[in-house]
């Protein structure tokens, strides 16, 4: 998760954190669709639902902690952006569990949905930007250069996921300029 503050022309990272969304004490939490692959359909549905509840509780806690820390620094967060996958509709669970490629896609969608719900629960306006679109935006020299500078200021690691999250937060901050002018605002992005 990357949180940026205005001004839009030169945003700065005010928070960077890794959100833990899988309770490793619960079997199959890290890759629930992989774990459910060999189960009967009704067992798989229940298994994934239970893992979803556990991950959602962890995500809500992590988002709440992040917002509390930002609030203590006098930042008000209204928006969140979740970096989306391809956006293709998910097939049925039965079809997903028959395809290893679809299992990987489903797990990415699972965690994006957990993050989106956690942000919604925290009262944030949540949007999504496709990763493919961000990669096109990242190719714009000026933005890419500024994103690299952000990483130098906060220090390593500055991974590709963090760069894309920072860019998404920057784009979101740009879209909300009018409200950002009225308050000290931070926007967050999670991937």
Keywords:
191 residues, 5-stranded mixed β-sheet, single chain, alpha/beta, Nucleotidyltransferase, domain 5, globular, 5 strands
Sequence of strands across the biggest β-sheet: 2-1-5-3-4
Shape: globular
Count the DSSP helices: 8
* The CATH C-level class name: Alpha Beta
Q: Work out the number of β strands.
A: 5
Query: What is the gyration radius calculated from CA atoms?
Result: 18 Å
Order of SSEs: EEHHEHHEHHHHE
Average pLDDT across residues? 88
Which residues form runs of ≥5 with pLDDT under 50? none
- Domains counted in the coordinates: how many? 1
Q: What name does the CATH topology carry?
A: Nucleotidyltransferase, domain 5
- Give the percentage of residues in beta strands: 15-25%
Walkthrough of the structure:
The protein has 191 residues and is α/β, with parallel strands linked by helices. The chain has one domain: Nucleotidyltransferase, domain 5 (2-Layer Sandwich). It contains eight helices and five strands. It has helices at 32-36, 41-72, 93-97, 100-121, 131-138, 141-154, 160-175, 177-180; strands spanning 2-5, 12-16, 76-84, 125-130, 185-190. Strands 2-1-5-3-4 form a five-stranded mixed sheet.
